[in-house]
Amino acid sequence: MKIAVLGTGMVGQAQAGRLAELGHDVTVGTRDVAATMARTTPDGMGNAPYAAWAARHTDVTLATFAEAAASAELIVNATSGNVSIAVLEAAGRENLAGRILLDIANPLDSSKGFPPTLFVKDTDSLGEQIQAAFDELKVVKALNTLTAALMVNPKAIADGDHSVFVSGNDAEAKKTVIGLLESFGHTDVIDLGDITTARGSEMVLPIWLRLMGVLNTPMFNFKIVR
Amino acid sequence: MKIAVLGTGMVGQAQAGRLAELGHDVTVGTRDVAATMARTTPDGMGNAPYAAWAARHTDVTLATFAEAAASAELIVNATSGNVSIAVLEAAGRENLAGRILLDIANPLDSSKGFPPTLFVKDTDSLGEQIQAAFDELKVVKALNTLTAALMVNPKAIADGDHSVFVSGNDAEAKKTVIGLLESFGHTDVIDLGDITTARGSEMVLPIWLRLMGVLNTPMFNFKIVR
After folding, report:
1. Secondary element (H or E) of residue A178
2. Chain A partners of B186 at a C-beta cutoff of 8 Å?
3. Closest Cα of chain B to A87: distance in Å?
4. pTM assigned to the model
5. Fewest CB atoms within 10 Å of the CB: A94, A140, A143, B187?
6. ipTM for the assembly
7. What ranges do the domains of chain B cover?
């Protein structure tokens, strides 16, 4: 599949690398290609600069948000939640029409320290805000409840015996995303319902952040035992 | 241990029955004993009236909130979140002094239909509001993330291989509550930290409610796989 990954951080790198490994035609989208490639210092989370990652992943192309989206069938939103809508605007509505958006972003507000709070919740969600802002997209919220390494390689813990969730209004788009998650190795993908159910998965973040603190690792996930 | 269970609904009945079965001296607290015993119709959730339950649990005493709290070492808050603070006021501050409060309540606002939203979240929590209102209590938030039957009998699914959480400011009180949860059969009790971490466990409710819908049963729980 032709896939655009918007965002060059830890989540974007994990998605792009794994999708390319699985044989997809992957373009990473960024605001300014030259600036992204010129950056030589780690990001705020301590991740290596994109150029260092790109040197090891020559099968992945870097382009502007608009160029990446233009040729893609499926777009991965791997941007920070607070810039997601601006990034999609920058990609251009004409380049989004009819695309599936796998939305991994969380509405984290880190402006008041750690742990971050959520800038939208409970009666609305980032997934819904994106769907409302871009009628031309088929938004599927997924993978926002676990760390990047586990999103794409669930078998790294407990042989993949844990759960992920999807929310979205378009049944066919959800089917495509579920297939993608299964190709990553996920074996328990739970369809929560329409995009309003993203309220549920996004509100998992506050306990996720505290669990990361007490477990002293991001390498954990929720399993829905039943 | 002498334990007061405040609340006569499904959660109160499950707690009181199991605690008595484990040999504790249990008193259930209600606003008006005569009115509670006179009720002959199921509650809003379809649960049998308290009197029918009490007839099968003659080892459990029913008393007013104040009487129940007065003689207890540990108090279980099994009331609806929207009345929890009023119930504790009714129990009387002099009857709460020095007690551990196992707070199971969730801040659900059902006034706008299903699924309910949360009347406090993200920057505050019901657990914190109760702790702030009643300095004399040692509040430990726990068991608010799973259905009543599983709170007290975790082995009813997957031989108990799933997780529960505790939040609270008092280390000794948390130790007592963790011991109680283990006596119920819980094998993975995760201490999230101080009472502010109740924000995390309370915000799990929105996904819990949606999972109950899609799984078509409340008999499931989260396991933190790591």
Report:
1. helix A171-184
2. none
3. 26
4. 0.97
5. A94
6. 0.96
7. 2-215
